């Protein structure tokens, strides 16, 4: 079937995106899941329940659930919203789903996922996207949306005016969808935010507001000192105090939220630590002792939580 827009990944990010597409008037939204049982549950539910905690109501978004192993649509735009470590498993299906000349928009945290897809998808354009909204997947059929409404997107290898077309559509539903000519700058900014917030909340099993505590602020500074050095290697210069101010400003907006990394640990799932603090370590090696220690701690937490499930 032909579809203007498809989503790969029915988790928190993909679920909220489907919600905004629905609010924008899109009435056919294929969402591809890796788990066939999730497809069946969403089909029985006739869509996903989105609990909008910002506005205080719940709505059923009538998506069309699909199984990623059976890609039957042809999509002009594909939003890939799976976790970074799941991206390789979606490559073959992405290629089958994408119309020639279409656009894939990668929404993963950290680095390497976008780069991988840029190498593999040659019959269309590949864009990167940075997500600034909070959500939690309560069950296969229920997503809690907890605030924020921004996606910043752009292509690195070519011009992609199609992103502006997407922006016009999604803004109809209230999503602040922005186009940029330098998506890597925003990816680095988001990496700074995630490397601090996700790791500290995961290690302490706390809500985002823990980052504002005095001890966490000092740890954040140590993480960011190494982050700044890693970014400099790639041509981006950041100032420590301004970075910390940016992080604290974002944390205050979502102080009561639970980070995606803590959600992963709570479920006994794999985290994206290798794409965040671990990415800083991959660039700096032994010059990133703080981020290396944090990466190892989170990996230990992964093992202990997984053994309980």
Task: Describe the protein in words.
The chain has 309 residues and is α/β, with parallel strands linked by helices. The chain has eleven helices and ten strands. Strands 1, 2, 3, 4, 5, 6, 7, 8, 9 and 10 form a ten-stranded mixed sheet that branches. The model has no long low-confidence stretch (mean pLDDT 96).
Fill in the keyword field for this structure.
about 300 residues, alpha/beta, ten-stranded mixed beta sheet
| Percentage of residues in DSSP E strands | 15-25%
**How can the largest sheet be summarized?**
10 strands, mixed
> End-to-end distance, in Å?
38 Å
Number of helices: 11
* Total count of strands: 10
Structural class: alpha/beta
Low-confidence stretches: none
Fraction of residues in helix? 40-55%
**What does the overall shape look like?**
globular
How is this fold's topology laid out?
Elements lengths: L1 E7 L3 H12 L6 E4 L2 H10 L2 E5 L4 E5 L2 E4 L6 E7 L6 H11 E9 L6 H8 L4 E15 L2 E14 L6 H11 L3 E4 L3 H22 L9 H20 L6 H14 L6 H8 L9 H8 L4 H20 L1
Parallel strand pairs: 1-2, 1-6, 2-5, 3-9, 6-7, 7-8, 9-10
Antiparallel strand pairs: 3-4, 8-9
Briefly say what this structure is:
With 309 residues, the protein is an alpha/beta fold. It is built from 11 helices and 10 strands.
């Amino acid at each position: 079937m032909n579809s203007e827009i498809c989503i790969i990944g029915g988790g928190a990010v993909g679920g909220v995106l489907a919600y905004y597409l629905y609010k924008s008037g899109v009435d056919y939204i294929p969402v591809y899941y890796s788990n066939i049982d999730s497809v069946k549950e969403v089909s029985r539910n006739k869509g996903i329940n989105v609990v909008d905690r910002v506005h205080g109501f719940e709505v059923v978004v009538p998506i069309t659930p699909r199984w990623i192993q059976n890609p039957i649509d042809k999509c002009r735009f594909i939003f890939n919203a799976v976790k970074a470590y799941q991206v390789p498993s979606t490559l073959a299906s992405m290629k089958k789903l994408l119309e020639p000349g279409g656009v894939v928009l990668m929404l993963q945290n950290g680095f390497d996922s976008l780069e991988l897809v840029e190498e593999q998808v040659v019959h269309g354009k590949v864009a990167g996207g940075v997500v600034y909204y909070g959500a939690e997947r309560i069950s296969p059929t229920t997503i809690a949306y907890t605030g924020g409404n921004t996606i910043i997107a752009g292509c690195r290898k070519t011009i992609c005016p199609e992103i502006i077309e997407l922006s016009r559509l999604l803004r109809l539903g209230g999503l602040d969808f922005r186009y940029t000519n330098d998506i890597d700058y925003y990816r680095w900014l988001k990496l700074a935010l995630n490397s601090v917030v996700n790791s500290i909340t995961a290690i302490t099993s706390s809500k985002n507001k823990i980052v504002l505590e005095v001890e966490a602020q000092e740890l954040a500074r140590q993480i960011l000192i190494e982050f700044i050095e890693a970014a400099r290697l790639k041509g981006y210069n950041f100032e420590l105090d301004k970075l910390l101010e940016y992080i604290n400003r974002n944390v205050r907006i979502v102080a009561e939220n639970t980070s995606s990394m803590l959600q992963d640990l709570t479920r006994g799932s794999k985290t994206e630590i290798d794409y965040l603090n671990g990415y800083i370590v991959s660039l700096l090696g032994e010059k990133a002792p703080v981020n290396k220690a944090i990466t190892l701690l989170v990996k230990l937490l992964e093992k202990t939580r997984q053994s309980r499930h």
